[in-house]
Write a structure and sequence with these properties.
Layout (H helix, E strand, L loop, with lengths): L3 H17 L13 E6 L4 E6 L11 E3 L22 E6 L4 E5 L4 E5 L12 E3 L24 E6 L4 E5 L4 E5 L12 E3 L19 E6 L3 E6 L4 E6 L11 E3 L21 E6 L4 E5 L4 E5 L12 E3 L20 E4 L4 E5 L4 E5 L12 E3 L22 E6 L13
Antiparallel strand pairs: 1-2, 1-24, 2-3, 4-5, 5-6, 6-7, 8-9, 9-10, 10-11, 12-13, 13-14, 14-15, 16-17, 17-18, 18-19, 20-21, 21-22, 22-23
Length: 403
C-alpha cells in the first residue's frame, strides 16, 4: 500500500522516469516480465518492467503521451503514437496489442515498446494511423472495420478482437502484416457486413472480454450478461460456442439467482493462468474466480473477491471494490482493475476464501481513497483503470492465454 513516505519515493522515481522513459527488452534473449495498465481517462497505457520482489509504484514507460504528466486525447493529434480512451491491452510474449476505443482501432507493436510514446507498427480497423471513424464512416461494418473494439486475445498465431458495437468477434487466422488488413472469419454474425445482436450459441450481444487457456476461447458479453466458451480456438465464421456461464443453458438464461455464484451482470474483462479463470463481473462489482477451467453450462464460481460473499454488491475497502472491470493473472499474483475507483488492487497469491483482503494497491494512497490522479498526473496515478495484464512468472516463456 502506498503511504506518505512512499510518495516521496514516487516523486524521485518519477523524475528519473521522465528523464529516461525507457525499459530494457529481451536481455540476453530472455523476455522480461511486464505489468501493463490501460489508463483510459488519461488516454495512455502504463508499462512496468515487473519485479515481484521490489515492485515500483511508478511505471517506466507511457504510451499515448510524451511524458507521465500529459493526459490529452490524441496528443498532439491522431497518429501511430496517440491514444483516445485505450480500454484494453494484451501481450502475447512478443507483440503488444492495444484497443484504442474512441479511435475505433487496434494498435500493434511488433515488440514491447522501450521508450515513451513509441509509435505502433500496425493498425487494424482503420486504413491508416490518421483515421478514426467507426466502420470507416460507412454506416455498416466490413472485414476491415471496427465500432468500439474492446477485448483482444492472441496466441501468437491467431488474433481475436471483440468488436463490441458490431456484436461480433473478428478472427485473423494468421498474424496481420498490413494496416487495415481484413479479418478472415467472424463470430456472432453470418457475414462481415451485419451487426445485429443475437443469442444462442452463434449470436452475440455486446461482446467485451476475450481470453484463452490455450485450449478454449472465453468471451464475455455485457449485453447478455453471460460468458461463452468454445472448445478449441475457432477459425471459421459462425462456429458455435460449446458452453455458457451465467445462463442455465445456451438458449435460455432461466431463473439464475442474482447475485450468486452462478450469476453474471455485465461481465467485462477476464484472465487466466491456465488453471484459474478470473472474471470482472462489472455491474455486480466483484471478481469471480473458478479454481479450474469451467467447462459445464452454468458452472458456479468457487471464490468471490472484492465482496465478502456472493450476494453483497456494495463497499470500497481492501476487501470490497465498487467496480471490477478486469484483472491480470500472474503465476504468483492476481490483480483486479477498478475503473470507478481509479486503482488496481493486488493479491500476493490467488485468493482461496470469499472476500479475501487485497495486499497492495496501485494508483491510490490507501484502500479507501478513490480520487482520480490523487498525486496529479504521474507515473503512479490512474484515472479509470480498465484493464491490467502481466506475464509475471512466465518471463521468456510463451504461454497461450497465460498472460
Amino acid at each position: 500500500m502506498l503511504d506518505r513516505s512512499l510518495q516521496v519515493l514516487i516523486s524521485t522515481m518519477l523524475s528519473a522516469a521522465l528523464l529516461c522513459g525507457c525499459i530494457k527488452s529481451n536481455v540476453n534473449g530472455v523476455i522480461p516480465s511486464y505489468f501493463i495498465i490501460s489508463d483510459l481517462a488519461n488516454n495512455r497505457v502504463l508499462v512496468w518492467q515487473y519485479n515481484p520482489i521490489n515492485f515500483s509504484p511508478s511505471a517506466q514507460i507511457v504510451l499515448g503521451q510524451p511524458d507521465f504528466i500529459s493526459s490529452s486525447a490524441n496528443n498532439p493529434s491522431i497518429s501511430a503514437q496517440s491514444l483516445n480512451n485505450p480500454i484494453s491491452a494484451f501481450f502475447d510474449g512478443t507483440r503488444l496489442f492495444l484497443a484504442d476505443l474512441a479511435n475505433n482501432r487496434v494498435l500493434i507493436w511488433n515488440k514491447m515498446p522501450t521508450v515513451n510514446q513509441q509509435p505502433a507498427d500496425l493498425v487494424l480497423g482503420q486504413p491508416n494511423f490518421y483515421s478514426s471513424l467507426a466502420n470507416g464512416g460507412l454506416g455498416f461494418p466490413s472485414a476491415q472495420t471496427f465500432s468500439s473494439p474492446v477485448g483482444i486475445y492472441s496466441n501468437g498465431h491467431q488474433l481475436f478482437i471483440a468488436d463490441k458495437a458490431n456484436n461480433r468477434i473478428l478472427i485473423w487466422n494468421e498474424m496481420p502484416s498490413a494496416n487495415g488488413q481484413a479479418a478472415d472469419a467472424v463470430l456472432g454474425q453470418s457475414s462481415m457486413n451485419t451487426a445485429a445482436s443475437g443469442a444462442g450459441a452463434t449470436g452475440l450481444n455486446g461482446p467485451f472480454g476475450l481470453i484463452s487457456d490455450g485450449y478454449h476461447l472465453f468471451e464475455s458479453e455485457t449485453g447478455a450478461s453471460r460468458i461463452l466458451v468454445w472448445n478449441g480456438l475457432p477459425s471459421a465464421t459462425q462456429t458455435p460456442a460449446s458452453v455458457v456461464l451465467g445462463w442455465l443453458t445456451m438458449g435460455a438464461k432461466g431463473a439464475v439467482p442474482t447475485p450468486s455464484a452462478y450469476s453474471l451482470f455485465q461481465p467485462r474483462f477476464m484472465c487466466t493462468d491456465g488453471t484459474h479463470l478470473l472474471v470482472g463481473d462489472g455491474a455486480d462489482a466483484r471478481g469471480l474466480i473458478w479454481n479450474s477451467i469451467p467447462l459445464v453450462n452454468d458452472q458456479p464460481a468457487d471464490v468471490v473477491v472484492g465482496k465478502p460473499d456472493f450476494v453483497t454488491t456494495t463497499g470500497t475497502t481492501s476487501q470490497s471494490i465498487f467496480s471490477v472491470t478486469g484483472g491480470a493473472c500472474g503465476a504468483n499474483k492476481l490483480f483486479l482493475a477498478s475503473f470507478a475507483e481509479n486503482r488496481v488492487v493486488g493479491y500476493n497469491s490467488y485468493p482461496r476464501v470469499n472476500g479475501q483482503a487485497a495486499d497492495f494497491v496501485i494508483g491510490q494512497n490507501d484502500f479507501i481513497s478513490t480520487t482520480p490522479n490523487p498525486f496529479g498526473v504521474t507515473g503512479a496515478s490512474l484515472s479509470s483503470a480498465w484493464t491490467a495484464v502481466t506475464n509475471e512468472g512466465y518471463p521468456g516463456v510463451w504461454r497461450p492465454g497465460g498472460y
